[in-house]
Amino acid sequence: MTLLNDIQVWTTACRYDYLTPNRGVGVLLPDGAQAALFRLDDGTLWAVGNVDPFSGAAVMSRGIVGDRAGRATVQTPIKKQAFALDDGTCLDDPDVALPVYATRVTPEGDVEVGA
Amino acid sequence: MVAGFGMVAHRLVSALAERGYPGPITVLAEEDRPAYNRVNLTGWFDAGADELALPPVAADVHLDDPVVAIDRDNQVVRTISGRTVSYDTLVLATGSRPFVPPIDGRDARGCFVYRTIDDLEAIRIWAAGANTGVVIGGGLLGLEAANALQRLGLATDVVEIADRLMPLQVDDGGGQMLRRHVEGLGVRVHTGHPAARIDTDPDGTVSSLILADGSRIEADLVVFAAGVRPRDELARDCGLAVGERGGIVVDETGRTSDANVYAIGECARIAGEVHALVAPGYAMAEAVADRLTGSPAVFPGADTSTRLKLLGVDVASFGDAFAQTPGALDLVYADPVAGVYGKLVVTDDAQRLLGGILVGDASSYGILRPMVGEQLPGDPMALIAPAGSDGGGGGLGVGALPAGAQICSCNNVTKGDLTEAITGGCCDVPSLKKCTLAGTSCGSCVPLLKQVLEAEGVEQSKALCEHFSQSRAELFEIISAGPAESVRTFSGLIERFGTGKGCDICKPAVASILASTSSEHILDGEQASLQDSNDHFLANIQKNGSYSIVPRVPGGDITPEQLILIGEVARDFNLYTKITGGQRIDMFGARVDQLPEIWRRLVEGGMESGHAYGKALRTVKSCVGSDWCRYGQQDSVQMAINLELRYRGLRAPHKIKMGVSGCARECAEARGKDVGVIATENGWNLYVGGNGGMTPKHAQLLAGDLDDETLVRYIDRFLMFYIRTADRLQRTAPWVEGLSQPDQAGLDHLRDVVCNDSLGLAAEFEEAIARHVEGYACEWKGVLEDPDKLSRFVSFVNAPDVADPTVEFTERSGRKVPAGHARSTTNIGMPKVRG
To answer: Which one of B59, B257, B321, B490 is separated from B450 by 20 to 30 angstroms, measured CA to CA?
Structure first.
């Protein structure tokens, strides 16, 4: 596991209040990679890779958020495979995973994604 | 190594995989398509090859490359393409070939056999230019073929050399009853005389069939269905023992005279018999799979029981149907008026069932066949006398069967196997089928599977998903009836009635119910988080994450200005345009951030959302109707526009399509729609429950000669009844079927509800639709007027003006297409960097 202080860059996404609970947004990272950032209804923030590894489409931020046996998930809108938000693992194909990004809220109320 | 890839070979390969066979498996197949369900071959005419497909197998399968020679000394086979493949164990599953009697003219153009999908394709093409067809052979396959010819629109004759139809399955009494049924359906039957020759036209095509008694039957097409012969040439050529009348001789383990070579299915002769049915073939495949994985299995003997519906006539034959057991007694029930014939064969003391024949009504077959060899539970006649409405069996339930009773003869599944699977966790018919394979071949035992589940006390789960134990219909009632503040939000609903956080099944289902019952914008408040991606962006997502856009074109009625607008928008945003099947125009390849600007222009031009992205009314397709058409009887265009504008935006358990035709020529293909309206001289006929797609269904007539007002009222009631009670993603056809009551077909029940208001809900249904019509607003207009909603249409929340660089396009044959979106696995193994 990468330690917080290994994170090189924090990218500002948007105001925390702008995020719709249980919905995602796409975040463009400085190196051109894309993150999908989610705010759940319990207030927590999660960020995973935005590119669906099955289709190659950058759509994970548009997926439906939910849970499988209590574990928070997002499902790709292309073919509906579910990924765990906590470690990015695909729950329908354990050989596939999304990268996972750190998140934090600044004292000013901005959400940042770390990579 | 398996030579041949029919159903039996497929079963062998599947069974080997199940048993963990360690070695590589090579399959060399003759046909150019993978194994398919040949038993249901005639289903190809309705549903196409996909419907017949069997699950893929884990083997190295070479299609279109059959074995042509076997070198047993070196354990090598050669294929037609010249490939040589060595084997440790060879299993011959080459099946059989249709028997074509050696009569003159049998090679004429227009003569066919009935064995493969290729045969059926050829028959269909030829039948298109033919009026009359004759089938040689009045057995099981012959009647299947006659059924197919009739449905291809040919006047059909059947010629059977024996003195009755299906001589191997039914006796004289059953044969007579069967003949009455078949003739009643317009098929002419000729028995007792063989075909003598086929006459041809000067150009070498079939013109008629001459029988041995000299009679002539006009025919543009001839199908040979006079039995099959084992394909044993490979075995003969390499010196394996072959029966006098054909068939590779095998012992009870399936082994040929060479210990490394087995033969299974219709090419094998086992215990002196060749079995041309799938059930014994499967039993042989299972036995050989057991052997090859080290278990000492033997072929358990053939069950030649048959049940089938031919030309709509129910026929079944099982056990010792011809009373060959010494001392056996026949018990016969015949009702020529009802067209029902039943015979039970019992032991001389009438204590045990030996077999039977059922014609006209074979509903008790499911109960009777497993009882063969068992003690009869009561008066044997009660078993075949008319069963009433209790599902057959004279009141006997599946609970009366012993554990050893075979429920699925195709796959040799006993009641004990099923109860074991149920104990192991199977709690519905699909999982039972998957787990035991019961009901996966001919399907005749599926009703019994349900009964076994019920008898075992398993309640059929109607749970929507892991988060809600309620069905969609129950949730609809909860949401409609409950206090708005607690049940009209997903969070309130799941807290009170469900568990967890929800998923892609329950969230869109609840969103749909909320939308069906209110006029709020679907992206308002918490609802936004429930919508499927398509509904959330009000467009249809495509494989590369771009979207397609379909403006509404009511009834296909469109002005030149609107066409120009669509053209200009597509040109300016470089969108690929395609005409849809629903008489509209689809524009492909828009990025999510382009959607608002595209829609701003469309809305300014007077167009509105077409709801192509929603489980909602899609289109009402129409023909040009009485304004222009010489044959039109009513104004189908105006009716289609009226219906589309009335029901636009109405969210439902699944998409809804409608069609309106201006006369019985049916150019709008209305009977392929959920709601089909066809003009008559006096008004409109209303058809319901049709669809295209994977399992096409014709809509059925609900009511005839309706005036405009009654038509709309009935459609209101039909739609609202459907929206309230259907399962999630259930189209109207299976919903109508599922409405059936113990004593009433689904359509009749529906007619009672819609036309006779038997539930007293008609006024409520109509009011619900009236509220929908009143509250309708274009969803895209709603987005354009709301800055917060508009701001969500971006690829990147932190860079709203940046286009997503992964959405790229290229050209193929001059068409714009997504670029390079093959399955990508580049993210596998990337570091997980959550802190």
So the answer is: B321
Q: Above 90 in pLDDT, residue B825?
A: no
Residue B734 CA from chain centroid, whole number:
11
Gap between the Cα atoms of B177 and B296, Å rounded: 45
pLDDT in tens, B633-645: 999 999 999 999 9
The answer to whether residues B161 and B168 touch, using CB atoms and an 8 Å cutoff, is no
DSSP label of B792? T
pLDDT of amino acid B395: 43
Q: B200 vs B90, B152, B274, B306, B524, CA distance in Å?
A: 44, 22, 35, 37, 73
Q: Any chain A CB within 8 A of the CB of B794? A: yes
C-alpha B537 chain-centroid distance: 33
CA distance A107 to chain B (A): 18
**Closest CA relative to residue B146, chosen from B73, B242, B231, B224:** B224
Tell me how far apart the alpha carbons of residues B376 and B392 are, in angstroms, rounded to a whole number.
16
CA distance B622 to B603: 24
Interchain contact A36–B (C-beta under 8 A): no
Note whether B543 contacts A75, CB cutoff 8 Å. no
Judge whether B832 is closer than 8 Å to chain A, CB to CB. yes
Distance from CA of B421 to the nearest CA of A (A): 24
A16 contacts in chain B (CB < 8 Å): none
Predicted confidence at residue B400, as pLDDT, reads 67
In whole angstroms, what is the distance from residue B694 CA to residue B222 CA? 31
Q: Which of B377, B545, B411, B476 is nearest to B728 (CA)?
A: B476
Spatial separation of the C-alpha atoms in residues A34 and A44, rounded to whole Å: 20
Nearest to B365 by CA among B175, B170, B163, B184: B170
Tokens of residue B220, six digits:
């543009």
> Closest Cα partner for B579 from B556, B561, B602?
B556
Chain A residues with beta carbon closer than 8 angstroms to that of B792: 20
H helix intervals, B671-799: 708-725, 732-738, 746-755, 762-775, 779-784, 787-791
Determine the Cα–Cα distance for residues B835 and A5; give it in Å rounded to an integer.
9
Q: Is A91 on the interface with B (CB under 8 A)?
A: no
Q: Which two tokens stand for residue B47?
A: 């549903």
What is the least distance, in Å, from the CA of B658 to any CA of chain A? 27
Sequence-separated (6 or more) residues with CB below 8 Å from residue B793:
B537, B592, B593, B595, B596, B783
Q: What is the pLDDT of residue A18?
A: 95
Q: Does A106 touch chain B (CB under 8 A)?
A: no
pLDDT in tens, A38-67: 999 999 999 999 999 999 999 999 999 999
Q: Average model confidence (pLDDT) for chain B? A: 88
* Coil, helix or strand at residue B498: coil
Q: Does B819 touch chain A (CB under 8 A)?
A: no
The pairing of beta strand B132-136 with beta strand B221-224: parallel
Sequential pLDDT tens for chain A (115 residues): 455 567 779 999 999 999 999 999 999 999 999 999 999 999 999 999 999 999 999 999 999 999 998 899 999 999 899 999 999 999 999 899 999 999 999 999 999 999 8
Q: Do B828 and A99 touch (CB under 8 A)?
A: no
Contact across the interface for B795 and A51, Cβ inside 8 Å: no
Residue corresponding to tokens 């589940």:
B453
Return the closest-CA partner of residue B262 out of B2, B546, B548, B627.
B2
A53 contacts on B by Cβ (under 8 Å): 824-828
Write out the two tokens for B178.
Answer: 């069967």
Coil vs helix vs strand at A47: strand
ipTM above 0.90, yes or no: yes
Ranges of beta strands (E only) in B430-551 are 540-541, 547-549
